[in-house]
Amino acid sequence: MRLRREQGSRTEPDDEHLLAALATDPSSAIGELYDRYSRLVYGVAVAVLSDPQEAEDLTQEVFLGLIQRCEYDRERGSLAAYLTTMVRSRGIDRLRTRGRVLRLLTRWHEEPSRETVTHDEAVTAENVEAVRSALADLPSAQRDVLELGYYKGLSQSQIAARLGMPLGTVKTRQRQALFTLRRVLGDRID
C-alpha cells in the first residue's frame, strides 16, 4: 500500500488507495478526499458560476459523482486535474441550462396573453373549421381515402390494400375528393 505522506503520528493513504476504498468504505474515503480537494473544487465552481450557493451544490454533486461513478484514470493526469475538469464542465452545463431557462421565461413573459387572439390565429381557426366542414360533406368513400392518405400517412398502394380495392379506384376517389374540396373552399386555402 502506497502512502501519501505522514502527518503527525499517522500516515495518510494516497489518492488511488482512497478511490479504491470508495467501493468498500465510501463514507471515510470520501471524507478524506473531500478534506483534500473541496477547497479546490469549490473555488473552481465559484469562479465558473459566480454564485456561492450554486457552487456549494456543484461541489457536493462532484463528490457524490465520485461515489456513484468514478471515471478517474490516473494515466490521464492527477486527481486534482480530473476534479477541476469535472467541476468546470458541470459548471458550464449549469450555465447553459440557466441560459435556456432564462430565454424560455423571457419568451413566455413577452408572448401575448392566450386570451388575446391574433388576426392570423382567427383566420387559421376559421380555415380549419371550413376544411373540417368540407371534409364532412364529402361522400364517405372519398373522405376515407383522403383521411388515410393525409392523416394516417398511407400511400395510395397501402390505402388500396387496407380498403381491399383496386389502386385505380383509390386514385380516382382521391382526385375527386380534392377537386370537390377545391371547388367548395375556393381560394380560402393555399
Low-confidence stretches: 1-6
**What order do the SSEs take from the amino end to the carboxyl end, as H and E?**
EEHHHHHHHH
- Strand order in the largest sheet: 1-2
CATH class of the largest domain: Mainly Alpha
Proportion of residues in β-strands: under 5%
Helix content: over 70%
Radius of gyration (CA) equals: 33 Å
CATH fold naming of the largest domain: Rna Polymerase Sigma Factor, Chain: A
Number of discrete domains: 2
Task: Please state the second-level CATH architecture of the largest domain.
Answer: Orthogonal Bundle
Task: Please summarize the sheet with the most strands.
Answer: 2 strands, antiparallel
Shape: elongated
CATH superfamily placement of the largest domain: RNA polymerase sigma factor, region 2, helix turn helix motif
Counted by DSSP, the helix tally is 8
Q: What structural category do the secondary elements indicate? A: mainly alpha
Mean pLDDT: 79
Distance between the termini: 78 Å
**Total number of β-strand segments?**
2
